[in-house]
Amino acid sequence: MNSITTLTNQEIKIISLILEGLKSRQIAEKLFIIRPNVKNHKTNICVKLD
User: Fold this and answer.
1) Total domain count for the chain?
2) Rounded CA separation 31/48 (Å)
3) How far apart are CA 42 and CA 40, in angstroms?
4) Fewest CB within a 10 Å sphere: which of 4, 9, 23, 38?
C-alpha cells in the first residue's frame, strides 16, 4: 500500500525539512540523528511512495 499513512512520524518530519530546503547534514543536526540515518529514511520514503 503506497500511502502517506504508511510513513513514520520521523519520515514525515524529514519530508517537511526537505521541503524547507534543508540538506541531509542539516536535517541530521536538527533531528539529532546521524546523516546515514537521514539517507536511510529518504530511501524508505521513496520506496513507500513509489
Assistant:
1) 1
2) 21
3) 5
4) 9
CATH number of the domain bearing residue 39: 1.10.10.10
Q: What share of the chain is helix, strand, coil (3-state, %, to 5)?
A: 75, 0, 25
Name residue, grid cell 521513496: 46
Domain that holds residue 28: 4-49
Q: What is the pTM of this model?
A: 0.86
DSSP tag of 4: G
Q: Residues 11-43: pLDDT tens digits?
A: 999 999 999 999 999 999 999 999 999 999 999
